[in-house]
Design a protein that fits this description.
Number of helices of chain A: 17
CATH architecture of the largest domain in chain A: Roll
Pfam family, one (chains A, B): Glyoxalase_5
Number of strands of chain A: 26
Helix content of chain A: 25-40%
Family (chains A, B): Belongs to the bacterial two-domain DSD family.
Strand content of chain A: 25-35%
Oligomer: homodimer
Mean pLDDT of chain A: 95
Radius of gyration of chain A: 28 Å
CATH superfamily of the largest domain in chain A: 2,3-Dihydroxybiphenyl 1,2-Dioxygenase, domain 1
Protein name (chains A, B): 3-dehydroshikimate dehydratase
Structural class of chain A: alpha/beta
Keywords (chains A, B): Dioxygenase, Lyase, Metal-binding, Oxidoreductase, Pyruvate
Pathway (chains A, B): Aromatic compound metabolism; 3,4-dihydroxybenzoate biosynthesis
Largest interface: A-B, 69 and 69 residues
Distance between the termini of chain A: 58 Å
Chain lengths: ~575, ~575
């Protein structure tokens, strides 16, 4: 963040301390918080860690946590001060000047701010002797001190220059605290700031904190407002990420660290502090590209949907299939999948993506790699058609007008990163995360959309064993039509292998909804699924699988329906399973 | 359950409806509850499902759920009755006589038991016309009706012979309901009973219910008492399992169904209704067998620990290593791992295991397969030594007296099943589940112990990506010693490759605990780890890896310490990682 230092707590990352430090350095962080358990398990001595960090260009901005210190009986205070001295000695070797002290959760602590202030004053004396500082943090589940307003009262009362606050967005926002009063704290008494986002979950706040935190912009907290309050105080320390997350704990730390840095870049942009290229306006999807080694199967299905071959790539075994505004590339090398957006300024789109740490690709056109290696192209109108030798196939059509959305199956480890990536790089708006029970386990899904570009990100939430004959990493493109029933009839006439939907589904629609009997009969006859929300209705149908992984959907949005028919996804999944087991 | 019918809700199992029915039938269930979403997604018509179940020997005992019916305004009641009629028609085709109606969570419902009773009476009339019945269930999160006492008041008030109760143990026990009052309900008014266990979790009860239920005996609810109350009423219907669980939803349904049936067998035994062979007394571990294709490495480490070769298997490439009461088999074919317990009656142990649905193995000795395919042998004293040609190696020793415990890494999908298996087959007592943050992700661990046999079951809670250089499926045996420090010294003298523990760990011990400085210096010098609980102390140390997966631990229990040093496991894991990256 330009003049603002960035840091990351080692607890955010997977691996040994050395794995974590290498990842933080390589993602460009200025400093780290050393989490005590990472140090304890490290074969490097504190002095060795100091040297190693210096070699990596990392400062050590904080040592943490020190727990259950204040407001205890005298003999326990003596033991706690002894314990603290050991840790301050360690910090001297480590070369770090600030230690995080969490408000006590101990049954030995008493509810006495005066005593807490007195004890913290004694601790601050020990720190001051060594030129160090104590950053006192109110845990959301602190036994008595559980708001920053109360930790600030105690710090004021202690009135020691080596004692200040640590503010952690999770502890404040998770319990509905109002961060606005942060502005009343002098910036020089805020010794450290930790940022974490989180989804809103109805669960024990300690478990929520220890397992489900996210990087800023990935959850539902307003980190922009929080950080705005912090910066308004004149706080000059680093903005540091402290995110306890079960998935990040086991994911490649090099990827997590990049995701983390991207979250700080997006936060900075949201605060108006960015020097990033602005997101150009988009004009919908330019094309979607499928990896289809069995290209003939996919071609046959596309032909059945009313597509025709509109061109052949001049240098690669890639066919362009088109129907009005819908363009699909079928790549027979089966090496890659790609999505392409129509950007007002493809060059600026690419520069923005690279500023957001996307890896640029050499593809002749502006393109970068998304977190899951999907290739993301930025096209300007139809300029990209020049790469194709036009084919003069006759213009069949079955009513498809364009690409409605592309469903991107994400690796479990990259789900949160992908949402943040598409939001920040393309400027898409994220819908809330949806989870649903599918035949082979829970699926998590999140839509991202803006200016005619719609993506859905999907991942299997738990899938570990050998079982689960779901379609693995499906490639799924949904086309738009103005009349789903008519399109389905036309496609059947063209020989499209549309997916049969069980009659039980329609019996249930009939029982639940007051649908027009004529419409219901048409839906049933054509195997078209139905959904509605407060804005409108949704009619959609699927093809069978072409090869192992590819299928298509055709959707009709009526009157401003905003969803993606997620409630019907389990029906589709079971039908695909049935076809594979029993069909053909 | 002899004269008691067993059933399972299809929602417990993964797959399509046909996958689920096949699994339930093959595990020996008498009937099923059909979960509506499974039916909607099925290509079989209701009549087809009826025929299919009949072919599989399964009755359809319940159709479920019907939601948000009662205590609503008149026009909504009309719509709900219409909806109910469609479902009752469907049930006629399906050939099932009972439908589950959950207490309403709708914002349209009002708090009026009289009105609820009136509406349920009308619904019961519709059911009675078809010879069917309504089983009304109070959801723990029902808008107004959220206890079985209240649903029972409403059912009494409605006073219709076709209206009765469904009792679900989760909805009653999760919110601390007292099940004893169930005894006041006439058995014939209890139309259906659903059993589910769960771990105690501090979270929203609806999320808890939908994601974390377990089969009886796998969680922390007292299902024995609950079922005892139910049976005391004279209830004659099936005992049915309804378990929503994220892991079971994606696991092989054939294994889950066996696990489910085993839970009902154990429940029956706990109620004193079993005809199962009683668990014979155990006298500790007989041996543990390692799959060690690199047998030489393992042998070298065992020799360093003071073991000697005590025999060679008469027909297989298996070495017997021994030191006092500790016996380890090293199987160079690398095909199997096994554990063996010393049973008072090996034949009865095996019969009991088979009664508990364990697959018998033809191994010359009494043996069965555990859920993860570990082979479980039942030995009678030292009878099994006859399989080995004695070797006359000289009697080294380094103070090991026996096997303290064997750590069994479980497949994620079989973790709960394994705990129930060892508890029911061997009569072990289960400790609570422990979860801890290890360097490469969360680990879940649970100990099972009794009569000198101790097992720990471990699984990586989230581990999905390519990252995570943890030891995969470690084979880990812990030996007992009376003096860990002396054993460590003796083993170092014998050349054992003991795992170095970082100095930072000992600095922290020193800061935290008031340990005797002499002891601390010895621990540090010998790389011995330390733990304590309210009963005593624990000293333990590890070897480096022998090959890719095998390592050993040596433990000293002082004064009744009951744990397994879990707090130190992350230190061990990081050290193993370091040795593999940087060592040798």
């Amino acid at each position: 963040m330009a003049e603002r230092r960035t840091a990351i707590a080692t607890v955010c990352l997977s691996g040994t301390l050395e794995d974590k430090l290498a990842a933080a350095s390589s993602a460009g962080f200025d400093g780290v918080e050393i989490f005590e358990n990472d140090l304890l398990a490290s074969r490097l001595s504190p002095a060795g860690i100091r040297r190693h960090c210096a070699d990596l260009g990392l400062s050590i901005d904080l040592y943490q946590p020190f727990r259950d210190f204040e407001a205890v009986p005298p003999e326990l205070l003596r033991a706690n001060l002894r314990r603290a001295e050991r840790k301050l000695d360690l910090m001297a070797e480590l070369g770090t000047g600030t230690i995080l002290v969490c408000s006590s959760v101990s049954p030995d602590a008493v509810d006495d701010d005066e005593l807490a202030a007195e004890h913290l004053h004694a601790l601050a004396e020990l720190a001051a002797e060594r030129g160090m500082r104590i950053a006192y943090e109110a845990l959301a589940w602190g036994r008595f001190v559980n708001t920053y307003q109360r930790s600030w009262r105690i710090v004021r009362r202690a009135a020691h220059p080596a004692l200040g606050l640590c503010l952690d967005s999770f502890h404040i926002l998770s319990v509905g605290g109002d961060p606005a009063a942060i502005r009343t704290i002098p910036g020089e008494k805020i010794f450290f700031v930790q940022l974490a986002d989180a989804p809103r979950l109805a669960m024990d706040v300690l478990q929520w904190s220890r397992h489900h935190r996210l990087f800023p912009g990935q959850g539902e907290f307003d980190l922009t407002a929080f950080t705005g309050h912090v910066l308004a105080t004149g706080y000059r320390g680093p903005l540091s990420l402290e995110v306890f997350n079960d998935v990040f704990r086991q994911a490649d730390p090099r990827l997590t660290a990049v995701d983390a840095m991207r979250s700080l870049l997006a936060l900075r942009e949201s605060l108006g502090l960015a020097e990033l290229p602005e997101a150009p306006a988009l004009h919908g999807h330019a094309f979607a590209e499928l990896a289809a080694p069995a290209g003939e199967d996919v071609g046959k299905v596309l032909a059945g949907l009313g597509f025709t071959v509109a061109g052949h790539h001049r240098t690669k075994p890639v066919q362009l299939w088109a129907q009005n505004g819908a363009r699909v590339l079928v790549n027979k090398t089966g090496e890659r999948t790609a999505i392409a957006v129509d950007s007002e300024d493809p060059g600026r789109s690419a520069r923005r993506a690279e500023a957001y740490l996307a890896q640029p690709l050499r593809r002749g056109r502006e393109a970068v790699a998304a977190p899951d290696s999907t290739e993301l192209f930025f096209c300007g109108g139809d300029d990209w058609l020049a790469d194709f030798e036009p084919a003069g196939e006759a213009g069949r059509t079955a009513g498809i007008t364009g690409i409605d959305h592309v469903a991107l199956t994400q690796p479990f480890d990259q789900f949160e990163e992908a949402a943040l990536f598409y939001r920040s790089v393309l400027g898409l708006r994220l819908d809330p995360v949806v989870e649903f029970a599918a035949p082979f386990g829970l699926v998590r899904s999140r839509a991202a959309a803006h200016q005619g570009v719609r993506l859905t990100l999907d991942t299997a939430l738990v899938r570990r064993g050998e079982w689960a004959p779901a379609v693995r990493e499906p490639q799924h493109i949904a086309f738009a039509t103005g009349d789903a029933i008519a399109s389905a009839k036309a496609m059947r006439a063209l020989g499209a292998p549309l997916l049969d939907i069980p009659g039980n589904y329609y019996d249930d629609l009939e029982a639940r909804l007051d649908l027009d009997p004529g419409l219901l009969a048409e839906l049933r006859a054509q195997s078209v699924l139905y959904d509605r929300d407060e804005h409108g209705e949704f009619l959609h149908f699927y093809t069978e699988l072409a090869g192992e992984r590819v299928f298509f959907e055709v959707v009709q949005r009526i009157g401003g329906y905003r969803g993606y028919g997620v409630a019907n996804a389990p029906i589709r999944m079971a039908a695909h399973r049935d076809r594979r087991l029993n069909g053909r």
